[in-house]
Amino acid sequence: MSEEPAEIVVDLAAIRHNVGVLRRLTGVPLIAVVKADGYGHGLEQAARAARDGGAEWIAVATVAEAVRLRDAGYGGPLLCWLTVPGTDLVRPVAEGIDLTAYSVAELDDIAAAAATAGRRARVQLKVDTGLNRGGASRAAWAELFARARDGERAGSWKITGLFSHFACADEPRHPANDRQEQAFRAAVALAEDSGLRPELLHLANSAAAILRPSSRFDAVRCGLAIYGLDPAPGETPADLGLVPAMTVRTRLALVKQLEPGDAVSYGHHWVADRATTLGLVPLGYGDGVPRHAFQPGSPGTAAEVAVGRRRRPLRGRVCMDQFMVDLGGDAAAVGDEVVLFGAGPDVPTAQEWAEACGTISYEIVTRIGGRSGRVYVDTGDPASKVDP
Ligand SMILES: *Cc1c(COP(=O)(O)O)cnc(C)c1O
C-alpha cells in the first residue's frame, strides 16, 4: 500500500461494462456524463472507458472540463452545459466542443467567440421544462429559437441539439415526469416551427434512460449508472447487471479494547454497553468520508465498513482524519483490510452509505478523495471481478 491513507480503486472494465448494458437496454446513442472528475472516478479515465464501452458522446458541466478532455487528446463529440460568466468561449468553439445556450445573451457571447475563432460554433439549446434550474424558461423559448435560427443563417453556429433535464426521474410515477416530457415535445415542435433542425434531442438522465423508454429520444445522458450505481433505488430492475466501478479500501491503523462504559470520539456520543474491540480507520471528513456517517441519538444511524468480510458499524463521531469501527470482540490486527464501499458480495455499497448519511450515492462517490489517490485496474471481465 502507498503512503496515502486509502486506495480508491476504479475498475475501468466496470465502466465499459455498464456503458454496454445501458447502450443495449436503451437502443439509442449514449452520452456519458463525466462531470465533477467523472463523479470522483477521474475525468479522463472515465471518459476513455466510456468511449471504449461504446458511448458515442461525452458530456461534462463546465467549459474547463471539456477543454481538459480535448487537452487529454479526446477528439470526439463533446458537450458542456454550464457556462460561468466571463469564460473564454473562443477556445471551445475552436476545439469543436458543443456549447449550450440557455439565453439570447449566451448566444450573443457565442456569436462573438465564433467571429474571433473564425469558425462556426456548435451549439445546443437547453430548455427548462420544469426543473427550474438551468435552461430557458418557457416564456423565453420563442425568442431563443428565433435568435438561434438567425445566427445559424448568418453562419455563426450550427444548432446541433436541443435538450432538457428531469426533476423527478428517480420517482417514475411522479406526475412531473409526464408534464416535463410533454413540455419537451412542445419545445421540439416550437423549435421546428422556428426553422431549427437540431439533430440530437435528449431528455433522459440515468434513471429516465432505464425506467422511461418514451424519454429516450435521440440519445440518453447517463452519469451515475455508468459508474455502476443505482440511479433509482427501489425502482431499477435488480437484474440490470450494473457493476460498481469504485471500491474504497484502507487498513486498520490501531486496534484496542473497550470496557463497558467507555465512550468514543468527540462529544462521547457513543458508549460501549459491553466489552468490545475498536478499530481505528485512518480516513475522515478530510478525505470525503461524510461526518454524517455516524449520527448520534436514538436510534441514530451509522454506516458500515467490511473488515475481514464482516460488516462493522462506525462508532462515535467521524473526525477529520480518522474514524472508529466496532469489531465486536473479534480478533483483528493492525493492517487488516477495511473496505468502506464498492463492489463485491460482502462489501457495503455507496448506496448503503448514502442511506446511512441521509444523502444520495452521487455525493458519496463524488466527494471521496482528499488525501487518497485513485488506483486504476482493468479486470477485463467484470462478471468475474466481484470476488477478487
Ligand atoms: C448530471 C447530469 C446528468 C447525468 O445525470 P445522472 O442522474 O447521473 O445520469 C444528465 N444531464 C444533466 C443536465 C446533468 O446535469
TrEMBL record:
The active site is at residues 35, 266. GO terms for cellular component: cytosol. It catalyses: L-alanine = D-alanine. PROSITE patterns: ALANINE_RACEMASE (PS00395). The modification N6-(pyridoxal phosphate)lysine is found at residue 35. One of its GO terms (biological process) is D-alanine biosynthetic process. Its cofactor is pyridoxal 5'-phosphate. Substrate binds at residues 133, 320. Keywords: Isomerase, Pyridoxal phosphate. Its EC number is 5.1.1.1. The keyword Protein transport does not apply. SUPFAM superfamilies: Alanine racemase C-terminal domain-like (SSF50621), PLP-binding barrel (SSF51419). Residues 245-377 form the Alanine racemase C-terminal domain. GO terms for molecular function: alanine racemase activity; pyridoxal phosphate binding. Pathway: Amino-acid biosynthesis; D-alanine biosynthesis; D-alanine from L-alanine: step 1/1. Belongs to the alanine racemase family. Catalyzes the interconversion of L-alanine and D-alanine. May also act on other amino acids. This is Alanine racemase.
